[in-house]
Amino acid sequence: MFLNVIFLLSVLCAYSQNGDQKGGRFIKRIEYNRFIMGYDNLSSKMGSEQKLLGKFNAPVEFYFLPLNEKPERPSAFRLLWESPTNSYFIEYIRFKSAETNDINDETVSRSFKVSTQFAEKMYKKMVSFIENIKARGTQKTINRGYEVTFRAVVDDEVWSLIIQEPYGDALKMSGLCRQILVDANRNRLDEAKNNY
Question: Residue 30: beta bridge partners?
Answer without folding.
Answer: 159
